[in-house]
């Protein structure tokens, strides 16, 4: 079983930025495992790098801890997205993208085996370790220690029922999976 950090490939694929930088101050792009649907007003966004390839997954702002999916990608991985949290509409041009707000936040970090930057167990995490029995049923999740990072688990079940192998099998573009832990 492996745990990966899900990263957006903004060096090769298109991404969104808010039209108005003050959007960051409003908290609308702050995805910290809290429901947003009731108060969601989609921010006005633009594509900052239109000459790049159009992927299936788009970043929606700096350090947001969420990603947007094209309508086609949303349909293809809907089961994984819905299990992980809530989908929020994000209109752009003539399409309706979906933003995944991950609500599946679990206490799965094994703090005894994790290596931190500081000897007192503080600072950035240098080497991750997880309690495999605490990983959620959803294969997309977050942990409180790194709530702006989306994680995914692979190798626990049938690859057909896991997010990373499904994205790869379908050839969906725009994500990078960085291995954090092998257990």
Strand order of the largest sheet: 10-11-1-12
Shape: globular
β-sheet strand percentage: 25-35%
Counting DSSP E segments of at least 2 residues, the number of strands comes to 12
Instruction: Measure the end-to-end span.
Output: 5 Å
Helix content: 10-25%
- Average pLDDT metric: 94
Q: Kindly provide the radius of gyration, computed on alpha-carbon positions and rounded to a whole number of angstroms.
A: 16 Å
Q: Class by helix and strand content?
A: alpha+beta
Low-pLDDT stretches are none
Largest beta-sheet details: 4 strands, antiparallel
Number of helices: 3
N-to-C SSE string, H for helix and E for strand = EEHEEEHEEEEEEHE
Summarize the structure.
By secondary structure, this protein is of the alpha+beta class.
List the helices and strands and how they pair.
Blueprint: E1 2-8, E2 16-18, H1 23-26, E3 45-47, E4 57-59, E5 67-69, H2 71-84, E6 85-92, E7 95-102, E8 115-116, E9 125-127, E10 140-141, E11 150-154, H3 163-170, E12 175-182
Antiparallel strand pairs: 1-11, 1-12, 2-3, 4-5, 5-7, 6-7, 8-9, 10-11
Please provide a written account of the structure.
- The chain has 183 residues and is α+β, with helices and mostly antiparallel strands.
- The chain contains 3 helices and 12 strands.
- The chain has helices at residues 23-26, 71-84, 163-170, and strands at residues 2-8, 16-18, 45-47, 57-59, 67-69, 85-92, 95-102, 115-116, 125-127, 140-141, 150-154, 175-182.
- A 4-stranded antiparallel β-sheet has the order 10-11-1-12. A 4-stranded antiparallel β-sheet has the order 4-5-7-6, with helices on one face.
- A hairpin with an 8-residue loop joins strand 10 (140-141) and strand 11.
- It is globular and about 50 Å long.
- The N and C termini lie close together (5 Å).
């Amino acid at each position: 079983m492996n745990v990966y950090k899900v990263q957006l490939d903004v060096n090769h694929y298109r991404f969104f930025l808010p039209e108005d930088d003050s959007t960051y101050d409003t908290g609308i792009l702050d995805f910290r495992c809290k429901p947003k649907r009731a108060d969601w007003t989609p921010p006005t966004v633009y594509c900052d790098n239109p000459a790049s390839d159009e992927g299936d997954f788009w970043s929606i702002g700096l350090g947001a801890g969420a990603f947007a999916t094209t309508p086609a990608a949303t349909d293809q991985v809907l089961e994984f997205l819905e299990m992980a949290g809530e989908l929020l509409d994000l209109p752009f041009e003539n399409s309706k993208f979906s933003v995944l707000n991950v609500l599946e936040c679990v206490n799965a970090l094994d703090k005894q085996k994790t290596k931190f930057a500081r000897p007192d167990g503080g600072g950035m995490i240098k080497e991750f370790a997880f309690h495999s029995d605490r990983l959620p049923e959803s294969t997309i999740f977050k942990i409180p220690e790194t709530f702006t990072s989306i994680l995914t688990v692979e190798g626990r079940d049938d690859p057909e029922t896991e997010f990373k192998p499904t994205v790869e099998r379908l050839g969906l573009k725009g994500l990078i999976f960085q291995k954090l832990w092998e257990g």
